[in-house]
Amino acid sequence: MHAPSSNRYTVVAILLHWAIAGLILFMIWLGWNMDDNEARFQLHKSIGIAILFLSVARVLWRWRNPPPPLPDDMTPWEKRLSHGVHVAFYALMIGLPLLGWLLVSTSSFQISTVLFGTVSWPHLPFTEGLKGGVVHDVTEFLHSKGAWVLIVLLGLHVAGAIKHEFAAEEGVFKRMIPGLFGRPHSPPPAQGYAIAFGGAVLLFAIIAAVPLMKSSPSAPASPGTTGTVPADEGNWAIDPAASEITFTGTYQKKPFSGTFGRWDASVLFDAEDLDSSAIEVEVYPGSASTGTKLYDDTIQGGEWFDTNSFPAVKVSLINIAASADGGYTAEASMLVKDQAINVPFDFNLTIEGDTATFDGRTTLSRKALNLGQQSDPGGDWVDDSVEVTVKGSATRKE
Ligand code: HEM
Ligand code: HEM
Asked: How far is CA 220 from the centre of its chain?
């Protein structure tokens, strides 16, 4: 006869068991039903990473709080089988999320992972050269088949629990359910909260800090002096607080819009001498903010603006000419990554005394700019055309 304190799992172990079991079953269903729905992919990745850290906590907890010994009336092979299933479960609880993480890290679709819409999750290191290759295909196979292994194990696991409950044996089920439903619950004294949960949270925090540290170098070395018209040679100073560059587009049929938080312009403009007027703008796409973290992170990724290698997009307004309606026509000559294109850019400009107000717009094609052409060349998710609007005011320099 076991003392009540020794034949039960701790409350923490019970909670972790059922939370992880429920999440895993939901994840298998979700994995099979993601279709092309990006929100479901993000949810799958978010819950999967949560399972990874709950499982890390669970393993650490188990180390500090060993499970109760199996009932004496189980035969040795039953004990071995039960133990084997548990070990395999732990391997899958950690292994499936790791495979999923490797899967998205090696995908040729460089889609960012933002956990529950808030925490930017990095890709695994050293996966740069593996994108779209055989490692990805093998990982995809293992991740998908791993779910089936889990289902088979679950069959054995549940069969075992039922058999031991209803055969004339001591039973194990009551060990894993809260006292409410079983015998009065007197769990063994628990210890190691800090190790189990502190350890899991610390590991999570270290990994989550990686993207935060990476995002800082996209700031320009010396703002305002990077254009080919040095800022001090321009005859107009842009008023940053009153000026903005915004963009709008469509993502899965829903409109989105955003603002570039950081850009520099140098403006040499004389309405009487348009030929020698020149407007240079450098826009930092890493500063784009749409209100949705997933979009902001994706914009910075390799197949989009690749802001680690190309922090700035350079734009020069050339061929400025007065149009019949009192506005101006021009061409925006842009360098996006290593892609140079020219697009028409019309703008209005009103000068009153020493203050100029302006607004202009253009429509850009993602295909022409080579943005997101691996994961979405046909514009199935993000529409090919993105409209960019510039407006603001400037003051004449002395
Ligand atoms: C315990 C955790 C997880 C379980 C049980 C699970 C289960 C599944 C299942 C059943 C599928 C469908 C496979 C198929 O179509 O045959 C799937 C697909 C997928 N999972 Fe997971 N997953 C887990 C964690 C993760 C994590 C952490 C990530 C990424 C961070 C991830 C990324 C993916 C992706 C990208 C797919 C689509 C694969 C494809 O067909 O291209 N999974 N998952
Ligand atoms: C995906 C779902 C599940 C997973 C991954 C899972 C995993 C595990 C693991 C790893 C253990 C061993 C704990 C340890 O000793 O460290 C365990 C124990 C247990 N599980 Fe599950 N489980 C799942 C679902 C279920 C279900 C549906 C039942 C209900 C019949 C169940 C009943 C039990 C019982 C009764 C024990 C205690 C066994 C014992 O005392 O040795 N589990 N489970």
From this structure: 24
